[in-house]
Each structure stands twice: as structure tokens, then as C-alpha cells.
Amino acid sequence: MADKRKVIYYTDELNDEFSTMKITPIPIDEHYDYGSDSFWWHFRRFFFYRVFAMPIAWCYLKLKYHHKIINRAVTKPYQKGAFFIFGNHTNILCDPLVPTFVSLPKSVYVIVHPNNVSIPHIGQKMRLLGALPLPDNFAAAKNFMGTMGMRVASKCAICIYPEAHIWPFYTKIRPFGDTSFKYPVQYKTPVFCFTNVYQKRRFSKNPRMLTYIDGPFFADESLPSKEQRKALRDAVYQKMCERSALNTVEMIQYIKKETVATDTTNTTGADAASLGTMRVGETK
After folding, report:
1. d(Cα 82, Cα 189) in Å, to the nearest integer?
2. What is the Cα 133 distance to its own chain's centre?
3. Is 209 helix (H, G, I), strand (E, B) or coil?
């Protein structure tokens, strides 16, 4: 379903969620099956992932957004081993699809919110397509980490959206923590990032979507582990912020609620509306 919102008001860049999909998540407990390393598992995954899903995903991205990946060659020297990918979270339908083409020809798994495997009728298929939902308890966390270790050992790519929450068509990079960067530090793998940007198309209301890949980034093993993951996070965040400046169209304006409240406290009528418009440009 198309997102018809033109303005979204937010209060918390770290925790606000603006997905239009309302789903009741299933429990991700010790009984959840993250998948195995068996022949049958890989056969089913190959069919759903390579034969069924990838052609549909490619067609959707190309027809809807004229999608193009830029700088994918930087991953080529590292295709023989595992690596982690971090991206900005700005599109409900595209975000599950883009990592597949960022990591090509390597198979990719994506760490997701439980909502992604709770969609009626297709939730279990998401698991075959590479969804690794975050665990709800300690026993599930053990299975989650075991599965991640297995995929890293199989030389797959692991994708993470560190912003955690979807802000559709957002044109900047929201602050995010360094917790998820503990994984590449733990497994001693390279890190890449990708930044989806939106550019105006002359004859379409849909923007063009460009995905810029950057890296590799490596943890500095001379530092303590906490400092390693912070340094990785900072390097990735800085590069993504640089790429986000390449956005040329703002499909949805994001306005912080407290900014609006402050502006209207001492301003009335048309002056308040004018000032609000100015702030949109500053904080989009």
C-alpha cells in the first residue's frame, strides 16, 4: 500500500516507529526454528530465495523505483568470506529486498523485528528468505547466536538496520547505538554499509532509489572490544551521513513535535506557519 502521508511529527529519533503495517508479533522463544544447515533447508531456501523471490524483487525495485546500486565492486575482494552490512531503514517494502542485491552473489540473512515473521500466510516463508528475528528470551537468544555463528561460518552476509525503526523516505541518518556492531567485532569480519537515497524523477511521482555501498571497515583490534564497536559505528555513521546528502527529493517531511510547540509559543497565525515551514527545511 502506498504511503500517502506528507508530514510526520516525531518526538524520539531513537524509538519512534512509522511503519503503516500493524502486526501482532509471534513470540520468538526457545521453540522458534531459525533454520538449519541441512540439505533440505538449503534446497528450500534456494528455491524460495533464488528462484522465486529474487526475480520478483528485482522487477519491483526496477519498475517502481528505477533502483540502481552504486559501488558494489567494493565487496568483490571479500566475497570468499562472511561480512556484515549496515543500512538505513527508510522503506517498508524495499528494505527486505535491497540487501539481496547489495551482497550478490553472496547469500544474505537479515536481522529483523519479530513482526517480519509474523505476517499471516507468509511469515514462515520470510524465514526461508533469510529473516533472523530478534529473540524474546535467553533460550531464544542462544539459538539466535548459534544460527548467526552458523551463517557466518558458511560465509554468508548478515544485514542489520541499526536505526531499528522504519521512517519511510527519511532523507537523513538517525542516531543509532553501537550494540549491533558487537557482531563483526566478535566474528572478526569486514563491515560494509549501504545508504538508500531518493532522487526526483521527471515523469513519475515515485522517486528514483539509489543504493550507495561503502567500505570495508575493520575493527581496530588494538582497542578494547567496546571501543572497537564504537569506532566501527562512528565510521559507518559518518559515511552514511555523507551519502544521505545526495537525496534530492523529500517525499515526507519530518517535524519534531517539541520544535513545533516551541515555535508556536511566542508566534501566532501566518507567522507560526511560516516559521514551521522553515524548520521543515532545516530538520527534514
Report:
1. 6
2. 13
3. strand
DSSP string, 159-170: EE-TT-S--TT-
Nearest to 25 by CA among 131, 160, 167, 145: 131
pLDDT by residue for the chain (284 residues), tens only, comes to 567 889 999 999 999 999 887 788 889 999 999 999 999 999 999 999 999 999 999 999 999 999 999 999 999 999 999 999 999 999 988 999 999 999 999 999 999 988 888 887 777 788 889 999 999 999 999 999 999 999 999 999 999 999 999 999 999 999 999 999 999 999 999 999 999 999 999 889 999 999 999 999 999 999 999 999 999 999 999 999 999 999 999 999 999 987 555 544 443 333 333 323 223 333 33
Beta bridge partners of 196: 211
